[in-house]
Design goal:
This protein is α/β, with parallel strands linked by helices. It has one domain: Spore Coat Polysaccharide Biosynthesis Protein SpsA, Chain A (Alpha-Beta Complex). The protein is built from six helices and seven strands, in the order βαβαβαβαββααβ. The longest helix is centred in the middle third of the chain and has 18 residues. The chain is globular, with a radius of gyration of 15 Å. The mean pLDDT is about 90.
Length: about 190
């Protein structure tokens, strides 16, 4: 059975927002629910800016890792999260805290579509999977990354680019979700 972890990136300072996005309304707790309800077996939250305050908002027992170099950009958060996931995890669904219109239905569609595609064409363990949501043809989050890709993603994840460069050079299963959400990050209240 494939173990899929949700990886919620919530470490940034939110400079355009004027505060860390992990502290905006219920975004942090809501995003954890989106991943869990979308089919992730576990959820790991990556914190950074205002980590102690954000941690206080989390449900008891929530798995957390702090990206100590969070101010270097999203790449630092992605690296910290992937490196902190257990060896029993086959794939990670990477989601961003500042996508409040993206719901569990999007995560579920990405996971189910990826499972279905690979069931008929290749590896079913999830370790080789690579998929992402798209909104009216524009690639976005969440991104599903199989363990076989983690090393390459960690190497490529620098600055605010995250896995973008890696994804451009690999075959990614694109899952259209524009009928479910807009997929745009929110930078102002």
């Amino acid at each position: 059975m494939t173990v899929i972890a949700g990886l919620l990136l919530a470490a940034g300072a939110g400079r355009r927002m004027g505060m860390p996005k992990a502290l905006v309304d219920d975004w942090l707790v809501r995003s954890i629910g989106v991943l869990a309800d979308g089919g992730c077996d576990e959820v790991l939250v990556v914190l950074g800016a205002a980590a102690d305050e954000a941690r206080d908002r989390l449900p008891a027992g929530q798995q957390v890792v702090v990206a100590e170099d969070w101010d270097a950009g999203m790449g630092a958060s992605l690296r910290a999260g992937l490196q902190a996931l257990g060896t029993d995890v086959d794939a990670a669904v990477v989601h961003l805290v500042d996508l409040p219109d993206v719901g569990a239905d999007v995560v579920r569609r990405v996971v189910i579509s990826t499972r279905s595609t690979h069931r008929s064409t290749g590896p079913t363990t999830g370790q080789s999977w690579l998929a992402r949501a798209a909104y009216d043809g524009v690639p976005g989050h969440p991104v599903l990354i199989g363990r076989d890709h983690w090393e390459g993603v960690v190497e490529a994840a620098v600055g605010d680019h995250g896995a973008r460069g890696y994804l451009k050079t690999h075959d990614v299963h694109v899952v259209e979700c524009g009928d479910l959400a807009g997929g745009r990050d929110v930078d102002s209240r």
